[in-house]
Amino acid sequence: MPRQIPYIIANEGCERFSFYGMRNILTPFLLSTLLLFIPIGDRTTEAKHVFHTFVIGVYFFPLLGGWIADRFWGKYKTVFWFSLIYVAGHACLAIFEHDLAGFYTGLALIAFGSGGIKPLVVAFVGDQFDQTNKNRAKVVFDAFYWIINFGSFFASLLMPVFLRDYGPAVAFGIPGILMAIATVVFWAGRKKYVHVPPAAPNPDSFSSVARTALLARAEGQSRPGLTVAGAGAVGAVISLCMTPSWGFVIAACTALVLVLAFGGIGVSMQLERARGKHTDAAVEGVRAVLRILIVFAMITPFWSLFDQKASTWIVQANSMDSPLLSIFGWEFKLLPAQMQAVNPILVMLLIPFNNLALFPLMRMIGITPTPLRRMGMGIAFSASSWVVIGMIQLWMDGGDHVSILWQLLPYALLTLGEVLVSATGLEFAYSQAPAAMKGIILSFWYLAVTVGNLWVLIVNAGVKNDVVSGWIAGSGLSPIAFQMFFFAAFAAVVAALFALYALRYKMVDNYRKTA
């Protein structure tokens, strides 16, 4: 095992405590403190909008961080300098607890700072391995994901209590201190890391090959791929023009999705035209990236479901009964935000359970738990969790008093889905990415989270529409119950499509060669 791994793992544990510490109390803080000037009937919707807009930023800026690392600074320097921005964002949250502009500035700095960390720490872990010890990489990726949830568990358990008992300044200040510690720990291991230098300008880069494929002419043939890509660009412009009615975040993210989707389809239609001007390896590398992006696109509904446990599920928990619990004589009632601690503790249990029991059992009965199979199963489990949470909402809408402990079942199903999708996805993304694009391909992995949260904003905006709200009222469902069943159906359909695509996907091995 590379001796530098403990520095990266310890850094990730502290950073994840800081991130989840502030993220998991963000919705309760918005509802109870920062958004009190908004009419109570609109406060929940606005809190969800702010929360998911923040998450969109957190997972959008990795595009920038991955590009800077791959082309200029390298992974270590990018992670370190962006970590300092991250710390400054935490400081703003603690200082400007009653100032809307100051607090939102802090959220923006955290989102921007995380852009230099999220796509790169995972790739930086992978850089510490080569062909001689790559068999240990899966263990480290699992440990990496385990420590994420170790930090998340204690943050989810403690920060709601600090928010209630000591106020926002302390509750947001503690995660800031942990982020500062994470930065120092990462810096301390600087002389032990394997530093893969940034890639030199490459005439056979992904963007160069894609541009050649789109613009190249073939005698006697039109350029249908360029037409498709152009249609995506036109759609993006139209989306941006809708900013006054849709809002900037929805309009801009939709424009990005249209450019990527239609551009990718266009490139794939004409990719063979790039041969000759670019090497065969470069052309096949672009083909591999396009196939990976299809997988990423089909994972976006999972993130729609998963990230709402910190918004929609907390809103539901606010209206549930919290019974008096006793552990070793200590009596307490769970706060709504503390239910999120169920997720990381289950992750820490399920990862070793899957590796030691579930996956060996699957192999014994002749089913190989490939990464794509695991991810497809995870999407299906997440869909089932939202069916259960929707049924709970129906009981509550019917006037029943429901214990907050009923959320344990959907949390368990959603967490099983998370372990199968997210932990596996980190391994899948690194192993499938061409050597020169590991940072940027992992940025696209995180961009899937942005798109997942975009679906949430779109659905929330749609529910406000008079026609849609009238239709929901006619169905007999409350708006929140309707959204729950809608997202469950959305994920179930995509899980079926994912299973079909997985049958055709050919895995590759892109770990670096021995030094």
From TrEMBL:
<keyword id="KW-0813">Transport</keyword>
<protein>
    <submittedName>
        <fullName>MFS transporter</fullName>
    </submittedName>
</protein>
<feature type="transmembrane region" description="Helical">
    <location>
        <begin position="345"/>
        <end position="365"/>
    </location>
</feature>
<feature type="transmembrane region" description="Helical">
    <location>
        <begin position="50"/>
        <end position="69"/>
    </location>
</feature>
<dbReference type="InterPro" id="IPR005279">
    <property type="entry name" value="Dipep/tripep_permease"/>
</dbReference>
<keyword id="KW-0472">Membrane</keyword>
<keyword id="KW-1133">Transmembrane helix</keyword>
<feature type="transmembrane region" description="Helical">
    <location>
        <begin position="246"/>
        <end position="267"/>
    </location>
</feature>
<feature type="transmembrane region" description="Helical">
    <location>
        <begin position="102"/>
        <end position="122"/>
    </location>
</feature>
<feature type="transmembrane region" description="Helical">
    <location>
        <begin position="20"/>
        <end position="38"/>
    </location>
</feature>
<feature type="transmembrane region" description="Helical">
    <location>
        <begin position="169"/>
        <end position="188"/>
    </location>
</feature>
<comment type="similarity">
    <text>Belongs to the major facilitator superfamily. Proton-dependent oligopeptide transporter (POT/PTR) (TC 2.A.17) family.</text>
</comment>
<keyword id="KW-0812">Transmembrane</keyword>
<feature type="transmembrane region" description="Helical">
    <location>
        <begin position="224"/>
        <end position="240"/>
    </location>
</feature>
<feature type="transmembrane region" description="Helical">
    <location>
        <begin position="377"/>
        <end position="396"/>
    </location>
</feature>
<dbReference type="InterPro" id="IPR000109">
    <property type="entry name" value="POT_fam"/>
</dbReference>
<feature type="transmembrane region" description="Helical">
    <location>
        <begin position="480"/>
        <end position="503"/>
    </location>
</feature>
<dbReference type="Pfam" id="PF00854">
    <property type="entry name" value="PTR2"/>
</dbReference>
<dbReference type="GO" id="GO:0006857">
    <property type="term" value="P:oligopeptide transport"/>
</dbReference>
<dbReference type="GO" id="GO:1904680">
    <property type="term" value="F:peptide transmembrane transporter activity"/>
</dbReference>
<feature type="transmembrane region" description="Helical">
    <location>
        <begin position="78"/>
        <end position="96"/>
    </location>
</feature>
<feature type="transmembrane region" description="Helical">
    <location>
        <begin position="288"/>
        <end position="306"/>
    </location>
</feature>
<dbReference type="InterPro" id="IPR036259">
    <property type="entry name" value="MFS_trans_sf"/>
</dbReference>
<keyword id="KW-0571">Peptide transport</keyword>
<feature type="transmembrane region" description="Helical">
    <location>
        <begin position="408"/>
        <end position="428"/>
    </location>
</feature>
<feature type="transmembrane region" description="Helical">
    <location>
        <begin position="440"/>
        <end position="460"/>
    </location>
</feature>
<keyword id="KW-0653">Protein transport</keyword>
<dbReference type="InterPro" id="IPR018456">
    <property type="entry name" value="PTR2_symporter_CS"/>
</dbReference>
<feature type="transmembrane region" description="Helical">
    <location>
        <begin position="143"/>
        <end position="163"/>
    </location>
</feature>
<dbReference type="GO" id="GO:0016020">
    <property type="term" value="C:membrane"/>
</dbReference>
